[in-house]
Amino acid sequence: MNEIILSLHMHTIYSDGSGKHIDLAKAAVAAGIDAILVTDHNVLVKDFERVWHFENGNVLMLVGEEIHDQTCSPQKNHLLVFNTEEELAHLAQDTQNLIDTVRQKGGLAFLAHPYDPECPPINEGDISWENWDVHGYNGIELWNSLSDLKIRSRTFTEILFYIFFPKMLNIAPPKQHMQIWNELHSKGQRVVALGGADAHAIKVQRGPLKREVFPYEFHFKGITTHLLLSESLTANVTTDRNLIFSAMEQGHCFVANDLFSPARGFSFKCEWQGGSATMGDEVMINQPFTLKINLPKKAECQLLKDGMVLRTWNNHEQCVYPAKEPGVYRVEVYHTVNRRRLGWIYSNPIYIRPAN
């Protein structure tokens, strides 16, 4: 498979971002990103979907949408919608109908920042996902870079600290997201996890003081989604968007924080006599199998089964685990940066089902 780095969930001047599409493209090239997925609020701006060429590199830009019911206050149940050719924001008041329509049109639907609590110091309301009766969505945004600011800041002093020291912010996905993900898996659901930047490049001015809070390039270097494509990117937008959305739909991807150490090269596979599977695959096996994990560098690696830690390896680069029981297997990787234990890589699961 061919690995690319995708940064998704970002906003331009067409909604509440500060930059134009060309600004996002330049920032993505500077950050070393292969593709970006723009998702303005309740507006589908398709005109900018193409490969952007600059002297220092190229980047593929795709366009989706973040849809939510604007008649509600606060405006909860944000849905990331990808791979549709028409505007669907007018369906926001009926979330299930919106999800159904997205799927009918061949699109993908992901629940954005499922846990996004209120943050009184900056007068931001709770915009968590509430409508858990819905079904048919593809997955969730497991780690949202900007939401971490609200989750980790209870005072204005903490807000200022993270604004001026943004590298201290993204420690690990919220425990609420991990709990939600595990619970959905325990109910037998296939739930693909994505990592989102939620980049706005917010510009703040207080008197003579001006600052751009979390510039696009900073966010693009942080929480990303690494996709495993069936083929290499071709520079043909139609072909490449099909490759990317197919990988997202199948869960052939993992979430990473690339800010301190590149996660490119991580792999998690299941092998047995006569076959193999990778992240996102669902297979039926009636024989022993081996789970193989390769890390880009030595780190702490946890193998989980059905949401519970099955085995931990410390300071390993390659990890092997023989197994024979069906279950939902996934991997979490942590590394230490300046004596802080940070979440680094979160794989999508391999679903091992019992053979009939």
Word description of this protein:
The protein is of the alpha+beta class and 356 residues long. The chain folds into two domains: 256 residues, TIM Barrel, CATH 3.20.20.140; 88 residues, Sandwich (Immunoglobulin-like). It contains seven helices and 21 strands. The strands form three sheets. Strands 1, 2, 3, 4, 12, 13, 14, 15, 16, 17, 18, 19, 20 and 21 form a 14-stranded mixed beta sheet that branches. The two termini are 29 Å apart.
- Beta-strand portion reads 35-45%
Helix content: 10-25%
Mean pLDDT: 93
CATH class of the largest domain: Alpha Beta
CATH topology value of the largest domain: TIM Barrel
Short descriptors:
2 domains; 7 helices; Immunoglobulin-like; five-stranded mixed sheet; alpha+beta; globular; 356 residues; 14-stranded mixed sheet
Produce a short descriptive summary:
The chain has 356 residues and is of the alpha+beta class. It is built from 7 helices and 21 strands.
Element layout with pairings:
Blueprint: E1 2-8, H1 21-31, E2 35-38, E3 50-54, E4 57-63, E5 65-67, E6 79-82, H2 95-104, E7 108-111, E8 139-144, H3 147-152, H4 156-164, H5 175-186, E9 192-196, E10 202-206, E11 209-213, H6 216-221, E12 223-229, H7 237-250, E13 253-257, E14 267-272, E15 275-278, E16 282-285, E17 289-305, E18 308-323, E19 327-337, E20 340-347, E21 350-354
Parallel strand pairs: 1-2, 2-4, 7-8, 8-9, 16-21
Antiparallel strand pairs: 1-12, 3-4, 5-6, 6-7, 10-11, 12-13, 13-20, 14-15, 14-17, 17-18, 17-19, 19-20, 19-21
